[in-house]
Design brief:
By secondary structure, the protein is an all-alpha fold. The chain contains 2 helices and no strands. The protein starts with 12 loop residues before the first helix and ends with a helix. Belongs to the FliJ family.
Length: 150
């Protein structure tokens, strides 16, 4: 009886490992993009909160002098400009985050495709092994039956 290997080697194992590594790298890039997006969103919220507090404080006053109005107007324009820039940066980071998510999805699909191929190959190998084993049993049973004396 020939000794058959118990498990077949997957020829594309190195490619599968590479795809797993690329997926992990994409996940790290996505995590960094999420962190930058979250930080920028917090920064933008902080700018808006400061403006809202300054506005509430300014409008709670009873009287305004012309320099107060000029100063408020200058501050408000600068704060609005900063908010606009921060919002634009947030939108850019949102696009980067979306691209990173799509990259993770694409790399996961690549990996899953090879894993499915590996599973199918293993199932086919196991089935071939069972068939070969069954054939051996059938042959030995036939030989035993033929050599029995009646």
């Amino acid at each position: 009886m020939p000794c058959m290997p118990t498990q077949q080697h997957f020829k594309l194992e190195k490619v599968l490992d590479f795809r797993r590594q690329r997926e992990e790298q994409a996940m790290l890039v996505m995590a960094e993009a999420q962190r930058r997006y979250r930080d920028q969103a917090e920064f933008l919220d902080g700018l808006k909160s400061r403006l809202a507090r300054a506005e509430a404080e300014f409008f709670s006053r009873k009287a305004y002098t012309p320099p107060d109005l000029w100063l408020w107007n200058t501050y408000k324009k600068a704060a609005d400009f900063d908010i606009k820039l921060a919002d634009a940066a947030l939108q850019r980071l949102a696009k980067e985050l979306q691209r990173a998510r799509l990259e993770v999805i694409a790399r996961a699909k690549d990996r899953k495709l090879l894993e499915k191929l590996k599973e199918n190959q293993a199932k086919r190998y196991e089935q071939e092994e069972r068939l070969a084993e069954q054939k051996e049993f059938d042959e030995s049973s036939t030989l035993r039956f033929k050599h029995q004396d009646f």
